[in-house]
Every structure is written in C-alpha cells, then in structure tokens.
Design a protein that fits this description.
Strand order of the largest sheet: 4-7-2-9-10
Shape: globular
Number of helices: 1
Structural class: mainly beta
Radius of gyration: 21 Å
Distance between the termini: 43 Å
Number of strands: 38
Strand content: over 45%
CATH superfamily of the largest domain: Immunoglobulins
Largest sheet: 5 strands, antiparallel
Number of domains: 4
CATH class of the largest domain: Mainly Beta
C-alpha cells in the first residue's frame, strides 16, 4: 500500500470488526429517506468504514452493504464515493484510512462518535510489558483497513504497509493475507473496519477481550522533552479502556490549572482522548499534568480514570519548532459557494532536529481539522486534494515528535461575486 498523503489519524478513535460480517443485500429501492451521508476517498490509499443509524437506512447506488440500520464498505485507492440515505441520527461510526465522512454535505469528525457495537477497540487489547506481536488477518470477502497507535514503539514484521514513529496503518484483503507488527507500550488507538480478525501475542482478540485498565497514558510526546523559549507544544493523552467515552479533564502547568485558548487542541482530541497546547516562554524546568475523569449519565464528573505528566526543560539548546511553507497553489485562491472545485494543495515542512511527525490541515474561522498527513525526517512535503470552502481558508501546521507545533501557514481565499 502506498504512503497516504492525506490522512486523519489523531482525531478519530475508531473500532474494528473482529469477525466476518454478514453480507446482507443492499437496499436500492424504496421511499426517499430524509438525511444524506457519504464517505468520500481522499485518494492515496484504501479506506474502510462501518456505521449505524437510529432509523432506516438505504444505499444510493451499488457496491457496498446494508443490513438493517448498519452499513459497511470501502473506498479508494482511486477516488470514489459511497452514498447513503437514512432517517434518525448517525449513531456510531468507525472510519480507517484516507477518507472523509459527510452528513448533508457537511464534513463530520468521526472522533465524536462511539464505535458500532460488536467491534474491537483499544479496550480489547491488553499487551504485555515487553514486546508484543499484533497481527491483522483478512477474513476474505472484502477489504479491511486499520490504524493504531501505541505509547512505545512499533515496527512492521512484513512489508507493504506504513509505520511512522508510534503508529501504523494499512489494509488487508481481498487478496492480501495479513499484516504483523511488533510494538511496546499500551495501545492508545485502534481502528479497523472490514472483514478481518485480530490476534495479540498469538491469542484471538474479540469484543469480550481485555483485562487490566491502564488508566490514563501519555499518547505524545515522550515523558521528558526539551523546548526553546517561545515554542508551543501539543500534549496528548489517552484512556485506552474508555474508547467510546468522552473524558472530563483538568490540565495543570507548574501546578496551576490551565485552559488552552482556541480550538486547535480540542480538534486533536476525541472520545477516549484529550489534548492541550501550551506556549513555553520562560526558561527552566516545567511540569505539565492532566487528570481525567469519567462523565456520568447526567454529564457531570464521575470517578477518576487516572493522570499522567510530562517534564519540559526550556532553554536556548532545547528542541526547536518545525516550520511550514506554502508550495501550491499560488494565492489568492478563488472560491465559490455554489460549485466548489477540488484542488491539490501542497506544503513543505522542515524540522531542524530531523523529527517531523505530521502536518495538520486546518480550516481557519471554521476551526476544523480537515486531515492529518504523516511526514518524517528533516524536510518533507504533504499534499491534500480539497474543495475550498468559502469563509474557511485552508492552512497547515507541522508537529514534530517532541510535540512542538509550527505557526500556521495559510492561503488567502477570494470569493467570486
């Protein structure tokens, strides 16, 4: 599978199908349903999905599967789109791979939804303290796509899939047999959609699997990092045992409660995850701590899940934030509210320490993460095929493996009369 240049991984806490799905007939005839949903490939790889709704559901067109209020299928690697009509609400969803979900023409963050019942999550993976082996095996009969992240390191045992730092992604089926990885630490995210089975250290993983709850763990960056004065750092934590739950969290910097301004950090979170950004100005040693709690049925604070912390040494010899430069297209970008045309956007990212991690495509004013691209090394490029939205200019930020965040580089939009 080729490297995906337009991805979303940070924002989505997905699920997995642990057994072959019953391939029920798709419904193409019948009454017109009131709501529309589509899954559109971002290009560059295979994406698979599964979702449920609270009402009725039917597919518009052919090629995928509907059974009652549940649908599943895949898009890509060439750009294509699956469309559905439904009544009620979108109830649960998992989307793995480079694709975007739209409801009624509006992009929708799947991180805000729980995974469908009967699917696998990070809560079902109970790794050992040393090196673990994770295998994803095609069940045949279709394509399955997956993404996962860990607190330690991950390496691929076989070929043809993608590993970047502490996360991995790829697909199996209909002809690909299986993919095997070795990793250390806890599994902070696990998303799989499609007919595939999972084993951990040789034992099958099922929706009933799972054991010890690790509480709240660091997702990124490492426990001890450095930064130069003026650097903004993104901190991310996860509760692997609560992948379907929103967390209630308190963040502290040097013992004082801290609430980050803006929406960027919130958009990098999701169910079972929390994030914040902090701009370090003063030199010295700083402590960042987050405490997480369950939310009770009334939306109030429930019992404690746990806490985790980071130590940041700020000084002139510390880690320097990456930079982003716009490559194409040249601005200003003409946009139309009536018929937006898809264009290819490209940026170049650079990191003095050679530790690039990702590029986050961000729509200003609308405060929305469009996609996340994996980058690496000292310099790398990221591209995105995107239909500009009037009033929501596109830009990009780079993040390195120590969590340092670049300034936003963005295009200027010009709305036609």
């Amino acid at each position: 599978m080729g490297k995906m240049h337009s991805r979303r991984w940070v924002l989505q806490t997905g699920a997995a199908v642990g057994s072959v799905l019953a391939l029920g007939p798709s419904t193409r005839a019948g009454p017109q349903l009131s709501n529309e949903l589509r899954i559109e490939s971002d290009g560059g790889g295979v994406a698979a999905y599964e979702f449920t709704v609270t009402g009725s559901l039917q597919q518009v067109g052919d090629g995928d599967h509907v059974d009652g209020n549940r649908a599943w299928g895949h898009v890509g690697p060439d750009r294509d789109t699956d469309r559905f009509q439904y009544t009620g609400d979108l109830d649960a969803v998992v989307l793995a791979g480079p694709a975007t979900l739209y409801r009624g023409g509006t992009r929708t963050r799947t991180a805000g939804f729980p995974q469908p019942d009967g699917t696998l999550t990070s809560a079902n993976l109970d790794p050992d303290s040393g090196t673990n082996e994770l295998r994803i095996e095609s069940d045949g009969g279709g394509v399955a796509a997956y993404e996962f992240a860990v607190t330690g390191s991950v390496e691929q045992v076989d070929d043809d899939d993608d590993v970047a730092g502490y996360r991995a992604w790829g697909h199996v089926g209909p002809e690909r047999g299986g993919d095997t990885f070795e990793f250390t630490g806890e599994v902070t995210r696990f998303e799989l959609a499609g007919p595939a089975s999972v084993s951990l250290n040789g034992s099958p993983v099922t929706p009933d699997s799972g054991g010890s709850d690790p509480g709240l763990v660091r997702a990124a960056p490492d426990a001890e990092i450095t930064a130069t004065p003026g650097t903004t750092v993104l901190f991310e934590a996860a509760a692997p045992g609560y992948p379907n739950r929103h967390l209630d969290t308190d963040w502290y910097v040097d013992g004082r409660e801290y609430v980050a301004p803006g929406a960027f950090h919130g958009q990098t979170g999701g169910r079972g995850r929390t994030a914040t950004t902090y701009p370090f100005e003063s030199t010295g040693t700083h402590e960042v701590t987050v405490e997480a709690y369950e939310r009770d049925e009334s939306g109030g604070r429930g019992q404690s899940i746990g806490s985790t912390e980071w130590t940041v040494e700020v000084g002139p010899e510390g880690n320097t934030a990456p930079t982003v430069e716009l490559v194409a297209p040249d601005g200003p970008i003409p946009v139309s509210r009536d018929s937006p045309e898809r264009r290819t956007f490209e940026v170049s990212a650079a990191d003095p320490e050679g530790a690039l991690d990702r590029v986050v495509w961000w729509e200003s004013q609308c405060d929305y993460v469009v996609a996340v691209a994996t980058v690496s090394g000292r310099s790398d490029a990221a591209t995105l095929d995107h239909a500009p939205s009037a009033g929501c200019p596109l830009g990009a930020r780079a993040v390195d493996r120590d969590g340092a965040v670049s300034d936003l580089a963005g295009w200027r939009y010009e709305t036609g009369g």
